[in-house]
Each structure stands twice: as C-alpha cells, then as structure tokens.
Description:
The structure is a homodimer. The first copy, chain A, has helices spanning about 15-25, 40-45, 70-75, 90-100, 115-125, 175-180, 195-200, 200-210, 215-220, 235-250, 260-270, 275-280, 295-300, 300-315, 320-335, 340, 345-350, 355-365; strands at about 5-10, 30-35, 50-55, 60-65, 65-70, 80-85, 105-110, 135-140, 145-150, 155-160, 165-170, 185-190. The longest helix of chain A is centred in the middle third of the chain and has 20 residues, at about 235-250. In chain A, about 50% of the residues are buried. In chain A, helix 4 (about 90-100) runs parallel beside helix 5 and helix 8 (about 200-210) packs across helix 14 (about 300-315). The radius of gyration of chain A is 20 Å and the shape is globular. The first copy, chain A, is α/β, with parallel strands linked by helices and about 375 residues long. The interface between A and B is medium-sized, with 32 and 32 residues.
Amino acid sequence: MERETCYTVVGAGHGGKAMAAHLALMGYPVTLFNRTAAHVAGIQARGGIQLTSADSKDGQGFGALRAVTSSMDQALAEADIVMIVVPACAHQDIARMAAPYLRDGQILVLNPGRTCGAIEFVHTLRQEGCTADVIVAETGTFIYASRSDGPAQARIFRTKDAVPLAAIPATRTAQVLDRLCPAYPQFIAGENVLHTSLNNMGAIFHPALTLLNAGRIESTHGDYQFYIEGVTSSVSRVLETLDRERVTIAAALGVRAVTAMEWLQMAYDARGSGLNEAIHNNPGYYGIKAPANLEHRYIFEDVPMSLVPIAALGRQYGVQTKGIESIVRLACIVHGTDYWRTGRTLDKLGLLGLSISELTTYVMEGILP
Amino acid sequence: MERETCYTVVGAGHGGKAMAAHLALMGYPVTLFNRTAAHVAGIQARGGIQLTSADSKDGQGFGALRAVTSSMDQALAEADIVMIVVPACAHQDIARMAAPYLRDGQILVLNPGRTCGAIEFVHTLRQEGCTADVIVAETGTFIYASRSDGPAQARIFRTKDAVPLAAIPATRTAQVLDRLCPAYPQFIAGENVLHTSLNNMGAIFHPALTLLNAGRIESTHGDYQFYIEGVTSSVSRVLETLDRERVTIAAALGVRAVTAMEWLQMAYDARGSGLNEAIHNNPGYYGIKAPANLEHRYIFEDVPMSLVPIAALGRQYGVQTKGIESIVRLACIVHGTDYWRTGRTLDKLGLLGLSISELTTYVMEGILP
C-alpha cells in the first residue's frame, strides 16, 4: 500500500494559509514553510490554522499541521508535493533555497507561475547545480479566492472548478495531475507551460488598469470600482492592444492563447462587443475596489513577472509589443525601478537565442539544445 | 509718415476672436480669416466682435473689423502682420494656403508655435515654392487666457505680462518685436525658436496627466480637479521624467530650457520639494476641471505637435526619451492614430540629418547646409 502523500506548502500569505489548512482538513500531513519565522509564530503556537469556507463542506475547521518551519531543509525532508504559494517575484529565491535539499521524485507546483515561472524555477535549479530528478509545474491561476483574517486564520471564498496546470516537460504533466488528483481534482492539463504562462489575464488587466487610473488611485486611496469605473472606452482600447500583442506572441510560438474576451465569457459568461462592454457586463466585477496605492502587486509582481517576459518573448521572436513596452516603462518610472532588468528576461529563463522549435522541444520534452 | 499697421488674425476660435477684437479696439485695421465661412457668419453680419475683459481698460467694447473672410487671398492682401491663432495641427495647412499670397516684408506669428511650429511653417512655405521674403515667428505661449461665449463675443480673463517670441532666423526677432510692440509690448525676445519650442510645458503636463487619469476622465466626464486631484506622487514622477527628458534634449542642442519646477515658480510663484508639491502649492490650479473626454487637444494637439517633435529631436541627437515615447504610444493606442506619422517628424520640419551646429546655424541665421 502506498504511503500517504505528504504536502509542503511554501508561503504563509493569504493563499498559503488557506491551502495548508484545507489540505490538512482533507487529511494530508502538511508542513508549512515561511521564510520569516516570526510571520508564522502564531500558527506554530496553535499548531495549525482555523479555516472557514464559503463553498466547501470539507474546508471548515481547524487544520492541524504536521510542522511549521522556516528551515527549507526541514520543509522539504518529507515532502512528496511542494505547493509554492508565494508572489512570483520570490520564485527564484525559493528555487535557490530549495536546490540543495531536493530529492528525486519530488513534485513542485507554482501556484500560479505567472509568466514563465516554471521555466525560471527549472533554470535556477540547474544553475544552482541541483541534479535531483524533480518535476516542476505551474498553474495558470491560483485555485482559491481566499483571505487571511488573522495570524492563524484563513477563509476560502471560492474554489475554482478548473485550473490548468502544466509541468516542464509537458510529458510529465499527467504524472503531476495523478498525484494531485485526490486532493485537487480541479487541476486539468494545460498543454505546456507556454500555455499556462501566456494565458495570463492579470498581465493584461492589472498594470494598465492601475497606471491609467494612477491619479485616481492615489488621490482617492482606491475608493472607486477598479473595473467598473476604471475601465472606459480609452482604457479598454489599451487593454485590447496589450491583449492582441500577448495573443500574437503566443501564436508565434504555436500557442493558441485565450483572448481576454474569450476568457471573460468562459470564466464569467460576460460578453460584449468589446472589452469595455464585456467587462461592464460582468457582475463579478461590481464592488471590487481599486488598490489603495501603487505599491501593489498589480505593478511590482505583474510587470516584472508577466509583462516583461511576454515582451521579451515578443522581441526574440519578432512580434511588436509597443503597448506592453509603454506600460512597462511607465511602471519603471512610477516605481523608480528598472523592471527590464529585475524582471524575467530570457537570459534569466535560459531561453536566450533558442529558436521556436528549440523552445517547443524544451517545454514539451525538457531537452535543451 | 508710416501708414498704420494692418493686422490679419487667422483663426476665429476662442483665442482668435479675442485677439481680433482687442487689436480692433486698440485702433488697428483688422481682418479676421477663418477657413470655414459659416463659422464667422455671425461676426461678418455684426461687423465685429463684442469684447469684455477682466484686466484691461482698452479691452472692452465692440471691436469693429475691417473684413471677415474665408479667402486667404483677401486675408493677406493688406496684412502687415499675420497673427495665426489656430491649433498647431493646422499650422501646416495654413502655411500651404498662405504660400501663394505672401508678399515681401510680411510678418507671420504663430500664437503659439507649440514645438517647432515656426520651423514647420518655414519649411512648408519653402516646399510650396514661396519665395516672398516674409518673417515667420512663434510665441512660447498664447498671450491671453480667453474664451468666446457666443458667435461674435469674446472675453479676456488675463493677459500675460511677458511672452517669449522668436523669429526664424533669430537675427530677425528684434524686427518682429519692434513691429508688434505698439500693440503688444508683452512680447519679449526668446533666444531662438528652439527655446520657444522646447520651453513647452503643455507638452509635459497635458498628455501624461490626461492618460494617467484616463479612466477617471471618461467615467466622470472630467468632473474632478485636473491638476489638484489628477497629480499625485506617481503621476508627478512621470511628469518629472518627461520634463527631464525635455530639458536634456534642449541641453544637447545648447539650449538652457526652463524646468517645470522653475516655470511653476516663475509663472505662479509655486514652489515645493518636487512637482507634486509645487503643483499643489499653486493656487491657480485649484478649481480647474479635467477635460470631459479624451477627444481633447491635450492629446490630439500636444502629442503630435509637441511630444513627437521633442522625441524626434531626442532620437536624432542621441538623447533617450523613453518616458515621452511611452506617452506618445499610449496616445496612439487610445486615439487609434499613428501620431509618430501624423506628427511633426524631422523630415516634415526639414531637419533630418542636420548636425547640431547646422541646426543652430539654421535657427540663428536661417542658413541651411
């Protein structure tokens, strides 16, 4: 008889706490890792996390954790599956920290990878000299809508029905899904990590919507409806341009990406003659407030970890990304940071100079030239 | 005895009506030209324009015009000084229309030129085969704050104290000022047209402030304070970047441009530790509402006629203009127009390939290599 699957959740933010508690309540042995020990002291003291859930009977109660640690060594020692639930900006650091302790057969899942998270993770492990035969996968989006209301508390508002996941190489996606299925039957096969990476709607919506409403966000501290009042005809024209650039880059790589319009219809049954109308026809967007300021992951995560790699792929494969580049540049100015340098550039991903067929071979079969 | 100076005012918008009426009330023979005859039918019927003025005793009453016409031939026949008061987008057309009728000794003044208006005007006259020895000059800003409340009415809120003006070549600026002085002692010598063109504050403030508040403008129809609520720390960081690019380009051309901070202090005695603070310390900005929509000259005039030539000069002389370029691109997307093509590019200005010393010789002495 197979022994029970041991989960380690990396990251004790809103999402990580919800996932750790939920897995524990499903009966799995769960270790929770967080870099900063102080941040999880409350959970350690209580021995777990109190979870409430709006849509799941099994997602209620006290999720007792097997261990809470800030030692990566300890976090990975017993793990079969490592669920990484940290901002994408931290993926590379986590890879560096994990590299020395990984063992053959372990599965690591970025929840989600944003754009090229799994590729960056694998490249970083390789650079760190890690030779363990692990599988790295990424999801297209985070499975929960969740929030943490206290140090050892989490709340799940909604669990998504279908979340695409792809491993690198794609030949191992099925193996990851098999292992995850008992806990998360919602994960479905994304064709390969270029699909999960390029179907990144946050990249299109978040930074542009934030920057084209920068004055309003800062002068009202976000006191307006982010989508309903922030998206107007001119703003949506910019979103449509960014979306067209994203989908064109995907097409150049042989990937049929979902357009923002298609996604709004699939995810929310929201339709319209253009993005402006479709967004206003999405009841789910009513009531969502804007961020309180511009020091927000809509810029500091979505720009370097999503728009920068999308633009970098566009450049390497000859697709113009003038709209995306303008948004990235404005973000650089606003944050006084060179996101072109700190972001996921192709050299950091190990993709510099690859032909399209070499890139495809890499994501499908894991073989680099 | 010298005969009386005859003025022709080209353009019967808010500004043109105020200027025509004011010149008439000062006692000059004034012809008012407007391309669309229907637009000035009311003025023609009444024979002049009723002017009210907040700050000038001579600016009150009915300004009787010598002629109101939509024939350029007639407009220029008796003109000594042609005051061109049209959006900068129309300068080139006006030059084409005027070219066949110009006579030696006539003076043409663009009120204002925005960036490189006089250079474009002279180049267009040359292209049209005009050989008349005319002087073309541009002002750095429009002399009045004015508004037209009815077909044959104008109102002057304020007349500026000092308005830089430069002729092309600069050796003829003094001659223009001499002729204008009896009517407009407020005009002062700008060093050359690169100074008047590069000290363009609207270029820095208008498009960026509009785009970084696009959602708010469109969702509130401009119902907020354009400067006071629209300028925030992030927005001002973008303005500061654009301003630095402008001033750096000017420096590369040997021009000491006024910074936006210096200008706020000079024009409004508004100071601060940065643009955000200085703008909020300017009482003059309180109460100014935003444009009602994005179909506004803050984009369709300031982008192609100001930001595009500034960026084009930057490119030719090796100064990076990434901030300006981002704003131009977003404007292109929002308006579905290629402002890089329709705007004042160096080929349209006749400046393509000139060295800095050739450019300087041209604006100072009127000699092209």
